[in-house]
Amino acid sequence: MDERTRLFLTAPPGTLLVKMATPNSLAFMIQSTVSLAEVWIIGQLGTSSLAAIALSFPLLMLMQAMAGGAVGGAVTSSIARALGRGDSNAAQRLIWHALAICAAGSALFLVLFLTAGDTLLRTLGGSDDILAQAATYCLILFCGGLFIWLLGVIGAVFRGMGDMALPAVLMVIGAFVQVPLTAVLVLGLLGVPQFGIAGAAISAVTTSFVISLVMLSILAKPGRVIQLKRTALVFEARLFRDIFSVAGPASLSPILTVLIILSLTAMVATFGEAALAGYGIGSRIEFLLIPLIFGIGAAMTSLVGLAIGAGDIARAERIGWTGGVMSAALAGLLGLILTLFPDRWIGAFTQDPAAFAAAKSYIGIVGPFYAFQGLGLSLYFASQGAGFMFWPVAATILRVILALGGGWFLAFQLGYGLDGIYIAAAAAMTVFGVMIAGSVKLGGWRK
Transmembrane region positions (predicted)? Predict the structure, then answer.
């Protein structure tokens, strides 16, 4: 076992988490500005373009969550557990298995979109110009999906080694490239033709392509705990099983989470274009919590995986609770600020009074409960590291039922309208966090 791995297994959890999570959190906070900047840039095109990106956004989030979250988290967990056992050969071969999954995953997403994408966007309420813009955006995104998958999964390989800094630095560089490139392509600046919202998709794919190639080249160089070697190109069923034992159940979470967004989007669309645009602004702000908490969660996945691999379950639980409290505090503070000062930031995205009101109502109802999202999401990532996903997946399923069933009942049966949808979303978020925390408290990782 190398000295770096030994340090990760013995250093105080709090200090270690802060040290490892800081570069991640800073990088993901900066990366989050890409999403906000895209909304602002696209907002310059008008309300219909904002509505189109609101339709498209859940599909982008699904692919990113599958690549960087479900599969990426599983790859981090598998590599960390292998290193915790002292099996660097298996960890090295896992890299090739992860790359193969990237190719298969991106191809599957493209085929599914080509087969059912138009129908899905229509079902969500897209029509005419809004549908055309959303379909073009998604087509470009999924055609270049391999690079988005590579970006998420290769970063996960580095995090499995305990190297949080390199993917964080490259993520920051990518953010500073993607935002101005998006502005140029969407708005047609500097003499470049105006691509509309399709420019945002082109920018995302291009940036992912460049950064993923840089990470691959670094991974192939010697001098790291593990590296990309041709001699390790040996596929084994047991290593695929090791990844999918976590990625399989974990993949249900982003699918179900996006199902919530898609279904709520469809319900909100019945209240009109302005309501859809306002909800799109509010929900995108909420989804910024995912990359923000991922900064802490990625470190938790790695450290918990190492501890579980070494057989130290008590240490794994201490890491989980430390990271969970940190994440809840961070998400809760963000939610409080957004809730108390909505007029300071919503106006940057839209001047349409109805869209503004819809976004303000959303953040006012859901924002105060962001702490539970932070708690549940961070412990979800930690559970990936532990290799125990039953209760996090069960909590996600219950969240879907409460959000969709409760939203429909409150909005359309009791007459609460848009606010009813938002109230159900907040209640479901709370149950999600409490249930996952309860499972860890009751020994879910010891089963």
Answer: 52-73, 94-114, 134-158, 165-189, 195-220, 255-281, 287-308, 320-341, 361-381, 388-409, 421-440
CA dist 188 → 16, 97, 199, 430 (Å): 46, 41, 9, 43
pTM (2 d.p.): 0.78
Q: How many CB atoms lie within 10 A of CB 72?
A: 32
Cα–Cα distance, 93 to 242 (Å, whole number):
12
Query: What tokens appear for 228 in the block?
Result: 């990309």
Taking the C-alpha atoms of residue 63 and residue 72, their distance in angstroms, rounded to an integer, is: 11
By three-state DSSP, how is residue 393 classified? Answer: helix
- The CA-based angle 237-95-150, given to 5 degrees, is 115
* Per-residue tokens: 253: 């979470």
- Whose CA is closest to 238, among 87, 381, 382, 380? 87
* Six token digits for residue 261: 């967004």
Question: How many Cβ atoms sit within 10 Å of the Cβ of residue 441?
Answer: 12
How many residues belong to the chain?
447
Give the pLDDT confidence of 162-194 residue by residue, as tens digits.
888 898 899 889 989 999 999 999 999 988 899
* Gap between the Cα atoms of 444 and 386, Å rounded: 10
